[in-house]
Amino acid sequence: MVVDEFVSAIHPTWFIFLSRSEVRVSAEQSNDFKETVRASTDIVGLIGETVRLNSVRGGREFVGLCPFHDDHNPSMRVYPDQQSFRCWVCNMGGDCFTFVMESEHVEFRDALEILAQRANVPIPARSQQRPGQPGLDKAKLLEALLWAQGVFQQTLKSVPAAEPARRYLAQRGFTQETIEQFRLGFAPDEWSKLLDQARGRFTPQQLLSVGLVRERENGSGHYDYFRDRVMFPIHNERGQPVGFGGRVLPGADASFGKYFNSNENAVFHKSRLVYALNQAREAMKATNTVVVTEGYTDCITLHQAGLRNVVATLGTALTEMQVTTIKRFAQRVVLVYDGDDAGQSASERAVSRFLAQDVDLRILTLPAGEDPADFVTQHGPERMQQMIHDAPEAFDFVFNMSRNRHGLQTVDGRQRILGDVVSLLAGVPRLAKNVREDLLLHRTAERLNLSEEVVREQYRQARQGTPQRNVQSVNTTHRVDRPETPASVMRILQGQPTRDDRFECDLLECLISAPEWITRVRQEIGTADFTNPSLRTIAESCFDIDELGEETLAFGQLLSALDGNEPAKRLAVWIGAQASTKQIEYKLREAEATNTESNTTDDCPLLLRRSLENFKWRREEQSHQRRVLELSEQCEGSRSLDDETEKLLRQFSDFHQKRASKKATG
Ligand SMILES: [Zn+2]
């Protein structure tokens, strides 16, 4: 995000300057107010709420992982005597106001109000509204969310229409205490209940900007976003509600999904937030372990069973930012997955994403057909605790999966396991030249009983097919070596793409221009269909962002996902520029408008459809080539044509006919 970059690039004293100038604008009384708030805030306590702080031996200072950069060694110092903090790596620093401004991405005035609320200092009435969007400042939005949480809670408790919701929660085994603790609530099946109740307190505009209401399509007002749903408030680290997850009741209309969350907005950042972090924080610090489940109800059930260091993702795959958030409290991260196929593949993806992260990552898969809530209910918290304790390290987990598939007994099996493992490692972001790289290669050799040279050579080859991330050189630690741009990227940038490059660039142009089609495209092709490694990386990032369920992919998001992979970034920028020169977005949207009338079976714009057909065509061509190879091998073995061979020959001739007609139509 541009603002973040700007903020981290400027010197900390700037903030003090900025805050002072803002204060001067407001009335003198607010200076007293500010000093009262400052005096009531202890910076060690404040920062300690979001960062695990340790006291520096023999002194009064504290040290912890800096939340403002990707910190691996605690480099942020907190000075209680001066009530200030400073990071010695990214140079972020200041007082309690700076800390809140930076960590919550708010302006000074909002930071002041947040700290006032925290310290129970009454907030004086505002002398003037800020120019721009009146009343849309963050403190007011947080107030609206807190109010809505209370309304939903009250509705769950007292309204007759909430009876099915109360029954549902009771069936899940939630006690009254748990329902209170997690502030669960209910939104009734009405179109403007919340809007009506908010009248006089909050404007529809304010409710809209925190995702509680939506605009009617004909522009004639608003309607409640959450209807007939059990409400799970999602809190930030300070325990303030910043968004909601709404769960449909069993038997009700689930056409909008079993769960849905507030949309991304000024206070709700899906990819950064972790559910129940405020509840789990102390236990995480105490055990240095965090357990991550995929669902809210699993997380709550585990808390109720006495496992308090449990958090959940917001119904999406774990993100790098979430890992950065949780590793400030605990080094050991145990990801819990259901024992079904979806759970297995989700866990494999998570491993490849986080193997290079500086955390002790473990994977716990439950017996087939059981989710964490079932498990703890049936086998008890001690057994669950034991499973968490025994969860294998991420690498061993992947190794064992491959071993179970191929077997260690045969040479062929070992070869395949080696192939699986090195290709996984080659794709791990930021693993190259990381200490973990050595450790993992060593361990691979050991477990396969192979020499380390063999493993390293295979790994080297696998990496050549995968784009290199920029790496810190081992010998010259002060220099950052940028790897040369690979030929597969250069030829595209220089206007000499291969046919395959062109197919792949065409499709990416569509995805970047009209990201609303990504979900659809994902159903038809996978990232493995991309042959150019850098283009595949771009596609992976697009798919990942789409999978996270953000509204739509923004180009800036894509670039930040490609951070550290300069060639892919350059390529993405190039593709974006091509797309806008070719007016791809306009062509896709125009097509969408005309398509709806002519063709009801395929709603895909023609341009995108053609691009997808190219991929499918190529897939067919590749499988054809494999068949030809099989055929020639068979012919060499036996000299007679059996049925199978005849079938292949027939397919062969079909393929040539298709190719001829394809050429004719262009
Ligand atoms: Zn820092």
What would you note in describing this structure?
The chain has a 5-stranded antiparallel sheet with strand order 1-2-3-4-5. Strands 6-9-10-11 form a 4-stranded antiparallel sheet, with helices on one face. The two termini are 42 Å apart. Helix content is 54%, strand content 10%. The protein contains 29 helices and 17 strands. The protein folds into 5 domains: 2-118, Alpha-Beta Complex (DNA Primase, Chain A), CATH 3.90.580.10; 138-261, DNA primase DNAg catalytic core, N-terminal domain (Alpha-Beta Complex); 277-391, Dna Topoisomerase Vi A Subunit, Chain: A, domain 2, CATH 3.40.1360; 401-473, no CATH class; 489-666, DNAb Helicase, Chain A. Helix 19 (435-448) packs across helix 20 (452-464). It is globular. The chain has 666 residues and is an alpha+beta fold. The protein binds zinc ion (ZN). Zinc ion is lined by residues 66, 68-69, 71, 75-76, 87, 89-90, 92.
